[in-house]
Amino acid sequence: MSSTAPTSPQPSPAPERGGAPAALSDVTASDSTLRRFLHGLPGVDAVGLEARAASLGTRSIKTTAKAYAIDLAISMVDLTTLEGADTPGKVRALGAKAVRPDPSDRTAPATAAVCVYPDMVATAKEAVAGSTVKVASVATAFPAGRASLAVKLADVREAVAAGADEIDMVIDRGAFLAGNYRKVFDEITAVKEACGASARLKVIFETGELSTYDNIRRASWLGMLAGADFIKTSTGKVAVNATPANTLLMLEAVRDFRAQTGVQVGVKPAGGIRTTKDAIKFLVLVNETVGEDWLDNHWFRFGASSLLNDLLMQRQKLATGRYSGPDYVTVD
């Protein structure tokens, strides 16, 4: 992992996204060709996958690289509040924290985004105005995804109209697990169209509900074929969320997808990543699997709000040699 300072994300050129890239457009021509392609993907060696993820998690890094990794991780956080009790005041406070995570240290980088429900997008947009922080919004009947397509698209359009830079959609896991891949594909392409030219699309699989690694691999390719700008592990609302193994599998998928199509897709592990040690393990996965092209917040994110506080505490420890008091960071 390079020890140079994080730079502003520079997206690499990619072919126009309008469903499947030309290199793979034939596999999405019909339900049967899509099914044949997804079930023709190599099966996942679960033991090998978990062993490689565990092995990469034992890598140690030097102090200078750790300082760089902490700042990089901070810049990759999607600071999130998705509760029924969210208020405009809470969202404004979250936006202020995203823009300046450590008010006592202006060298601390801003986070990548704040993520809120559609009705809070306008408030979040005002809170981060003039900064590099994006506003992301969950949509499509998050987190269950149990709604008609018309309702899901209305959800997306409301968020985009309010100024959302990014949309985090959930797939219909019931349709996917029933083998109705075409329905899932068509919903993703419709949501991508509703995002327009201004909003990037993150597609959430809820990997903890997909049961097998083979299903996670199929969902990854299905999402990318349908036009996802990011593939995301989880909503953070179920028992099993991001793990090193499922994230490694998704990183392998985006690597192979770019090799076949020339299109780069981002990855966002979400839920369960709480400590600096965890975050660095995930950054090692990125570096060793897909390389430096993904080591910025245009292509990799953490959906883990509680992680930010630990990153700030560890950052101060590196700078001063001691841990700060319990009131050093805000309680979200």
SSE layout:
Blueprint (H helix, E strand, L loop, with lengths): L30 H10 L5 H11 L6 H13 L2 E3 L7 H12 L13 E4 L4 H7 L6 E6 L9 H13 L4 E5 L2 H5 L3 H15 L4 E5 L8 H13 L4 E3 L11 H18 L4 E3 L7 H14 L15 H16 L12
Parallel strand pairs: 1-2, 2-3, 3-4, 4-5, 5-6, 6-7
Helix pairs in contact: 2-10, 3-11, 3-12, 4-5, 6-8, 9-10, 10-11
Record keyword descriptors for this entry.
alpha/beta, TIM Barrel, seven-stranded parallel β-sheet, 7 strands, disordered N terminus
Tell me about this structure:
The chain is an alpha/beta fold and 332 residues long. The protein has a single domain, classed as TIM Barrel. The protein has twelve helices and seven strands. The chain has helices at residues 31-40, 46-56, 63-75, 88-99, 121-127, 149-161, 173-177, 181-195, 213-225, 244-261, 276-289, 305-320, and strands spanning 78-80, 113-116, 134-139, 166-170, 200-204, 230-232, 266-268. It has a seven-stranded parallel beta sheet with strand order 1-2-3-4-5-6-7. It starts with 30 loop residues before the first helix and ends in a 12-residue tail after the last helix. Residues 2-17 have low confidence and may be disordered.
